[in-house]
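Pipeline run #58 for the internal structure catalog. This entry was flagged by the ingest filter as a single-chain record with no existing model, so it goes straight to prediction. Upstream metadata was stripped on purpose; only the residue string is passed forward. Reviewer on rotation: M.T. Logging verbosity set to normal.
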Amino acid sequence: MIKKLTLFPTFIWLCVLQLEAGYKEQLLEDIYKRKAEKKDFSRSNYGGWQSENHLYKHELYHKVLDQCTTVVQNVFPGPFICDYRQLWAQINKKGDYNRLHGHGGIYDLTGSLYLKVPKGSGKLYFRDPRPGAMLTPSVPFNWSWEEDIVVNEDLLILSFPFLEHGTWPGTNTEDRISLNFDMSFLPK
């Protein structure tokens, strides 16, 4: 008898989160306004632009965070409050990308909501979090230690902060725009 155990799986949750068109336009206008102020906060980005990480303090962003909270509470039922610790916007164009990175061990969940995704935008990729995964010579089984995800407009991706990820360079000159957050669960 052969028994198979699936131990230590790493989940990623994908959800379509459609915002009202007028509200989405307000968010995009605000993001472009912030970019025009020439405040560029480099993190993992190579090229592109990222805003300051405290957009959660601005009332305009509360509605989108409320909608993200609804999704999170459906994934993780329980008596807790979603405490958003960071929220920032990002704009990438042709050739821009995000280097492989994680979000540290002080948050419980990280997320990205794609507001604008033109054709040819770079894919998002996640790296297998197991330390020895890259060293396994299992080529005949077609195992991969990095997995690509094609992102689309209105896609919300939730993952654990320890899961390393990045983006491949895009080929389109139009802007790909996302909102990204890190949050913690606080007991009610």
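catalog note: The first helix runs from residue 21 to 36.
catalog note: The first strand starts at residue 13 and ends at 16.
status: ready for reviewer M.T.
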